[in-house]
Fold this protein.
Amino acid sequence: MAISKLSPIKSTLALAIDYILNPEKTDNGKYTFAYGCSLDSRDAAKDFLNIRDLGTGKGDVLAQHIKLSFKGNEVTPEEAIQIGVELADKLLKGKYQYVLAAHTNTENIHIHLIFNNVDFENYRTFEYQENRGKVSWENLRKINDELCKEHNLSVIENPQTGKGKCYYEWQQDALGKSWKSKLRYAIDETIMQSATFDEFLENIRKKEIECVYNPENVIKIKFRMKGQERFSRGRTLGWYYGEPQIRRRIEQYQLLKSGISGRNIRTKIIDTSNDVFQTSKGLLHWADIQNMKEASRLINYLTTHNLHSQEELEKSATSTYNDRMVIVSRLNSYQNRINELSDVIKVLRTYKKHKPVHEQYLQSKSKNKFQKENANALLKYDDVVEKLKQMFPNKKLPNLERLEKEKTELISQVKELNEEYKKIIIELKEIEYAQKSINEYIRTMNKSTTKNELE
C-alpha cells in the first residue's frame, strides 16, 4: 500500500530538494534518481529555474512535491525507487524535470518526488495542463493504485478524495496515539498478567502483538502491533522494556502479589538452637535477652500500627504493596507523558525559533543572498515543518505555553509522588523486617523447646 500526498513548493526550492536528497535518509545517496536535471540540490534548482524562465504565466508555484509512503516491509528501497520512476513516467509523461529519493530512516519506507512546475516541451505550468479543476491528486491516486496492484501491494479501500495523506499521518489518525505508547501499555499490562517470562511471550502474542525473542541476538526482543510498520526494539521503548528488565519485573510482581519483596533481609533474631549456645549458659542467657529485646520492639511496632496478629500484619503488607504498585504505575504514566511533551515542546520551540527567519526570507528582495546567509536556519525550519506535519496532520498546532505548563505541573506531581514512594518503601522495609523477625523468633523458640524436650 502506498499513500500519496501532493503539495506545491512556492519557496526554498533548493532546500526542499536538499532535504529529500539527505544522505542520512537515502543510505548515503544510494536511493536517489534524477531526470532532466542534476542530482545536486542547488544545481537541480537552477536547472528547474532555467526552464521556468522560458515560460509565461508562471504563477507562484516553483515545483510540485509528491510523497508516497509504503506499508511496512512490502517494498525494498530499490522497489520504491522503481515505483517512483514508473509513477513519474505515467503522471509526467517525460515532460517535466524531477528528482526522486527513497527515505529509509523511518518506520515506513517512503519516496519523495519533486518535479518542475513548468515542463520543457512547451513551457506551460503543471496547474494549467494537468490540474485544472484540482484533479491532479485524483489522477495521482489512480496511478498510484494501479502501480500498487501491478507490484502486488495492498491498496487502501475507499480512500478519501481531495486530500492526500502520507502513511504516518493516516496511521496517527487511526490510532490517536503513537505505537510506542500503545506497546508500552500492552507490555505493562501483560507483565502483570504473567507468572513467568515464557507465559509473558505467550500472552503478548495472544493480543495480536508480534514478539520476536532470540537470546542469541544483540537485539534480544522486539515487538510489533497489528498494523504497525516496523518492529520496535524493547530497549527503544525504554530501559524498562528490555528483556532482562521484563524478566525482573515479572518476578518482582509475582513476589509482590504474594506479599514478598524478594529482598534478603537479615534480622537481629539469634538462633539459640545451635550447639554453641547450648554448651555455654552465659552465651545462651545473653542471646535470650537480645531476642526478648527484639521481640519487645516488634510487639511495640505491631501495637503502634494497630496490628494484633500475623494475619493482620500480612494484610497490611499486601495493602502497602498494592499502594506501591499504584504509585509506580502513576509515576510511569506521568513520565511517559512528560517524555511525549518534551518531544513536542522541542519541535515547537525549534519551529518558533526559525519561523521568523523563514518569514524574512519570503519578504527579502534578494532571496539568493538571504538563502546563502541563512541556509542552516532555513533547512532547520523546513525539517521542523515536516515533523509538525507528521505530528499534527490536521495542521492545528498546540499552544506551546500550555504544554510547558502541563509539563511543569507533571514534574511537580512526580516529585510529590517520589516523596510518597520513599515513605512507602520505608514502611515496606519495616513490615518485611517485622514479618521475618517474628517468623524467625517463633522458629527459634520452637527449635529450642524441641531440643530441650529431646534432652
